[in-house]
């Protein structure tokens, strides 16, 4: 799997690990520009309907689609060229994930406009990481990112409990930009480029007909 695909997949696998996916008040698509450590840019488009999330991207010339069911806590990764898919049990992955203590979350008191929406800046610090998020309201809680680049360290939101989450993000958590801080260096790892309200048919979030499931040990639902 190409590196850019791996970090996108890692980002999405962990997107639900901070807690259950809430029902969405927003139906539509959000496009992100994701940038890796070497400056390579990948566009990722997230489409939302209720508690369902579809993500499309092209990594190293290969189209890839991920379908997340927030209520079922599962993700299906589609490989369109092969007409195959893999199923991942996000609940089981959460249980196996490394536990982190409560992060230090600081409201920076600044706001800006990204992709036509106002957002507020927060800094999140843990023992091994420091990041900033520009959080917008009104798009729900579908995304609680853990390590967007898939590098193995927490960004402070992996193990937020309900009390901490509700205290800091009472009106929803939806980052339009994630900035990694290392020493005196700042690197924007993902930033929204478009927020588009639109309606989707429910079938858009299902595995297309003719696809075959590829079984991988430890990836599927428990018996």
Brief descriptors of the model:
globular; twelve-stranded mixed β-sheet; mainly beta; outer membrane lipoprotein receptor (LolB), chain A; 223 residues
Describe the structure.
This protein is mainly beta. Helices cover 11% and strands 42% of the residues. The chain has one domain: outer membrane lipoprotein receptor (LolB), chain A, CATH 2.50.20.10. The protein has a twelve-stranded mixed sheet with strand order 7-8-9-10-11-1-2-3-4-5-6-12.
State the share of residues found in helices, binned by percent: 10-25%
- How far is the first residue's CA from the last residue's CA? 27 Å
Strand portion, in percent?
Answer: 35-45%
The parts where pLDDT drops under 50 for at least 5 residues are 1-7, 9-23, 142-162, 219-223
Mean pLDDT: 75
Major sheet characteristics: 12 strands, mixed
Q: Going across the major beta sheet, what is the strand order?
A: 7-8-9-10-11-1-2-3-4-5-6-12
According to CATH, what is the class?
A: Mainly Beta
> What's the architecture, going by CATH?
Clam
Rg from alpha-carbon coordinates: 17 Å
How many separate helices? 3
- When the domains are counted, the total is 1
- Kindly identify the CATH topology: outer membrane lipoprotein receptor (LolB), chain A
List the helices and strands and how they pair.
Layout: H1 3-13, E1 28-35, E2 41-49, E3 52-59, E4 62-69, E5 74-79, E6 84-89, H2 90-96, E7 104-114, E8 117-125, E9 130-135, H3 162-168, E10 175-182, E11 185-197, E12 212-213
Parallel strand pairs: 6-12
Antiparallel strand pairs: 1-2, 1-11, 2-3, 3-4, 4-5, 5-6, 7-8, 8-9, 9-10, 10-11
């Amino acid at each position: 799997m190409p590196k850019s695909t791996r970090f996108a997949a890692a980002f999405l696998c962990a997107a639900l690990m901070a807690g259950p996916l809430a029902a969405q008040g927003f139906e539509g698509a959000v496009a992100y520009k994701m940038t890796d450590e070497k400056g390579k840019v990948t566009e990722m488009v997230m489409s939302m309907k209720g508690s369902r999330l579809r993500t499309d991207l092209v990594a190293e010339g290969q189209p890839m689609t991920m379908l997340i069911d927030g209520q079922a806590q599962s993700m299906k990764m589609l490989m369109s060229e092969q007409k195959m898919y893999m199923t991942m049990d996000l609940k089981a992955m959460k249980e196996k994930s490394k536990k982190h203590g409560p992060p230090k979350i600081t409201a920076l008191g600044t706001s800006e406009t990204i992709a036509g929406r106002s957002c507020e800046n927060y800094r999140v610090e843990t023992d091994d990481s420091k990041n900033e998020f520009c959080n917008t309201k009104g798009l729900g809680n579908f995304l609680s990112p853990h390590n967007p680049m898939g590098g193995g360290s927490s960004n402070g939101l992996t193990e937020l409990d309900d009390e901490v989450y509700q205290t800091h993000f009472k009106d929803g958590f939806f980052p339009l930009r994630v900035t990694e801080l290392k020493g005196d260096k700042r690197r924007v790892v993902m930033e929204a480029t478009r927020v588009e309200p639109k309606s989707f048919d429910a079938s858009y979030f299902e595995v297309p007909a003719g696809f075959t499931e590829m079984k991988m040990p430890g990836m599927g639902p428990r018996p």
